[in-house]
Amino acid sequence: MDDGRSASPNPSPFLWLVLALLVCGVFVTLGYKLWPLLYPEVAEVAEINRGCDLRQGACEVVFGTGGSVVLDIRPRGVPPAVPLSLSLEVQGLEVESVEVDFAGVDMYMGFNRIALSERSPRHYEGRGMIPVCVRDRMTWEARVLLLTPRGLLAAPFRFDTVR
After folding, report:
1. Residue 8 confidence (pLDDT)
2. Transmembrane region positions (predicted)?
């Protein structure tokens, strides 16, 4: 028996509105939760050691509040698209974890963060790679992120790569 009403093939506009609000809410929540992982709040950023060339050998950066880190990257020259061995020595700091974030200084090159493993007290190692850039010369910053009891410390190391 047909009562004269037919089912509409399209859901009501109200349901589409509810669905759109739910999707927006999911994206806002994801952004809120992921933001601190991508852009952590840093308690102290050390001065860049401009007198040292990371492509030639290990470089040291000293924090104003005490402590230092020495970063060494092999192979020498820090070639793009080649596996790199990273070695880090920490002095005068109590460190819970260490990561190295490679970022293009003048061009965004994507998220490229490497966690280093503690091999012995105050010595950390890891492997990573930097991507090839369309430019012939690219300036990079290897930012060492040290999680300490007093907060996140950052030690920047700048170097250039050439294709």
Report:
1. 59
2. 14-32
